[in-house]
Design brief:
382 residues, binds iron/sulfur cluster
Amino acid sequence: MAGSCGPAIVCWSGMSHFSFRLIAWQQHSGRHDLPWQGSRDPYRIWVSEIMLQQTQVSTVIPYYQRFMERFPDLPALAAADLEEVLRCWSGLGYYSRARHLHAAACHVVYELGGVFPREAMLAVQLPGVGRSTAAAIAVFSAGAREAILDGNVKRVLARHQGVHGWPGDAQVEARLWELARSLLPGQDIEAYTQGLMDLGATVCTRRAPRCAFCPLQADCVARLGGLADQLPTPRPRIPVQQQQLRLMIYSHAGRVWLERRPAPGIWGGLWCFARGDSDEPGAQCERTWGVPAIRVNCGEVFSHTLTHRRLHIEPVMVELRDAPRHTSVGRWLAPDEALTMAIPVPVRRLLQPLAAAADSKRTTSGAQYNGMPVPPADQVGR
Ligand code: SF4
């Protein structure tokens, strides 16, 4: 457990008490069996670090395992279609991460001779790789003495060192980087770095930190001053933008229409139902496809929250009377086939009952599929 001296006191081998305690704690109580641990392969480390940005470990694990099965190495990822990469990412959110992964893999394979950079100063030049991610790659793939500063580490340092101010503020962030560098140990950098990550994720949590189990409790400014619930200083409030979004679920002969969203933008690169406009849905159908709607059915509005935006999604099922006369950029797909595409969570939620209904029609009566059940109103995650 914790020693009683502060981080300025240096122990053997040039280690501060801060790093000494953290390393000992990580070796005894940290996480050692995560699927990306035990490897020095920068590719595996890089993918895990990108997936872990803004996403919890428990959510990432099944995605990481599926991703590694499908794209076991850099050449496999570079050779894949972006479409397929997005499909593997579907449901994990923040899709620009997947686009950057694919772009970076192509860059390394086709322009850097296929050798993934282990040095932080080179890795940081890849698309989607920030300073902390580059440092983590260097630490875990090469044992480099680099400082990381992800969200968990910012929280631990802000509390332990008593740093006030929102960590997203440039001056506060610069102070935290300075601290992160000054606390680096002279050895065991991997255990130290993993210890910071583990402590932030399992002990010094955002809400209700478990200070009694913390190796840093003896000299933690936040604990001693009763400030743990005030540090780090929260981000100044940004009003959540409310947005209405009508999704047109066009159907014909048992298939639904999906089109790819442009990037950048919400769900860029993913497959989505067409967006409704201000027209009456039947009129929009006739204008889009050159044929009238045989049936228009408005579903219940449901909410979906993005980072600073709350979407109020109105699904409108529109069945075309005849085969469409116009063409557009997209695909007609059976609902179960559409579910295999790279689609965002709300589209998946809308497709699932359609696929189930189509399946039920096929297996019970063989009748032509034309029903469009309305999914329940719901609060859905990213
Ligand atoms: S003592 Fe508490 S607040 Fe301080 S670093 Fe440990 S868990 Fe966080």
